[in-house]
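Module 6 notes. Inverse folding takes a fixed backbone as the condition and produces residue identities as the prediction. Think of it as a translation problem where the source language is geometry and the target language is the twenty amino acids. Below is one complete input and output pair. Work through it position by position during the lab.
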């Protein structure tokens, strides 16, 4: 068994890693990366994002640029969402599917438009742990004579500035006016006098932006935002924030064996408006006959937290499994996501969760658990 030092040396580090050390962040291994799990405390960081603004180093995410003629029509075959509807400056959250309709990864496709020669450009963000897998999958299904693919993951810093006051903190460092950008909108921008890319996206359930920059500019932006009061946040708060917003975590709530219809992502599946895509026949069948299981929101009583992997019971029998669970800092009670048979997925359905050998009452509740009133 490798010792801790050897293990740490095999983990990748983002260009902002040194800042985490300077701030005495607690570090953890995540998707092959050594990342900050918290800086000043998960609850404080969580509340900063809900009430004002926090920032996350998400440079570990995979970042691909693609350009070519008929690029969008080629990407159409990889996802269930209709990308042809995207206008330049718009983005689509969607999923890569395998032939069984299972989710290879959840991704965001940013469409950047078409030049005078008819060449289309797009930018894709994927999860850190699946970057290599996604890259191989996408390349194997694109005509590489027509499409130029570039993996810019190591070359760029990605900072998420999230919270109801994110725009107020970020705007002074950006030349362009951020106010007109709608949710999932994006643009090429000048940040601290240097070229960058800004999208009104994030995974916290709040308004906010994700900023792509060269490493030295990213370092300067992080320090500048910190100087004006934006709270550095780690993966711990990112997890509690996304769970309150019922956003799926790849590898836990969704994976190669879950379909978007099972995972409550039916809004990504545009069967009526687009042609063939990988996994379409499976989703058509599920749409026609219904899915056998569904991802639900659960609330347990008291302070009994249903964690990942815990069993869900009905009438004393195991019927499902918890995929994510935490004590919600905003709501003050435990929340969880779990897969159960569709007949038990209705809001109000009483269930139980086995916690340390004992069954505790739980009830199916509406998702998301928390919805921001200020999200742009």
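Target side of the pair, the amino acids:
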């Amino acid at each position: 068994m490798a010792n801790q030092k050897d293990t740490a040396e095999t983990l990748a580090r983002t260009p902002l890693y040194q800042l985490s050390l300077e701030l005495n962040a607690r570090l953890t291994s995540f998707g092959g990366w050594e990342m900050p799990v918290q800086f000043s405390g998960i609850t404080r960081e969580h509340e900063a994002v809900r009430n004002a603004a926090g920032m996350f180093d998400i440079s570990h995410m995979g970042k691909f640029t693609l350009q070519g003629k008929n690029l969008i029509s080629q990407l159409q075959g990889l996802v269930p969402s209709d990308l042809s509807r995207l206008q330049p400056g718009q983005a689509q959250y969607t999923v890569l599917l395998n032939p069984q309709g299972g989710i290879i990864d959840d991704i965001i496709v940013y469409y950047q438009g078409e030049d005078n020669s008819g060449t289309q450009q797009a930018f894709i963000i994927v999860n850190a742990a699946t970057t290599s897998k996604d890259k191989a999958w996408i390349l194997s299904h694109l005509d590489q004579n027509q499409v130029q693919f570039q993996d810019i993951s190591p070359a760029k810093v990605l900072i998420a500035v999230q919270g109801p006051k994110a725009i107020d903190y970020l705007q002074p460092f950006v030349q362009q006016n951020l106010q007109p950008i709608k949710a999932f909108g994006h643009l090429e921008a000048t940040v601290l006098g240097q070229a960058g890319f800004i999208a009104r996206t994030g995974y916290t359930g709040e308004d906010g932006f994700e900023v792509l920059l060269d490493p030295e500019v990213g370092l300067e932006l992080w320090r500048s935002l910190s100087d004006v009061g934006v709270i550095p946040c780690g993966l711990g708060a990112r997890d509690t924030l996304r769970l309150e917003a019922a956003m799926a975590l790849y590898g836990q709530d969704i994976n190669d064996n879950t379909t978007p219809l099972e995972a409550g992502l039916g809004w990504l599946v545009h069967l009526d408006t687009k042609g063939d895509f990988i996994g379409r026949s499976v989703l058509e069948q599920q749409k026609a006959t219904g899915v056998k299981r569904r991802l639900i929101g659960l609330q347990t009583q008291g302070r009994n937290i249903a964690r990942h992997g815990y069993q869900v019971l009905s009438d004393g029998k195991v019927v499902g499994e918890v995929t994510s669970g935490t004590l919600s800092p905003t709501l003050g009670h435990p929340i969880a996501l779990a897969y159960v048979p569709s007949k038990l997925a209705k809001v109000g359905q009483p269930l139980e969760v086995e916690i340390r050998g004992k069954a505790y009452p739980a009830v199916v509740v509406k998702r998301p658990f928390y919805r921001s009133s200020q999200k742009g």
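Reference fact for the lab report: The chain has nine helices and 19 strands.
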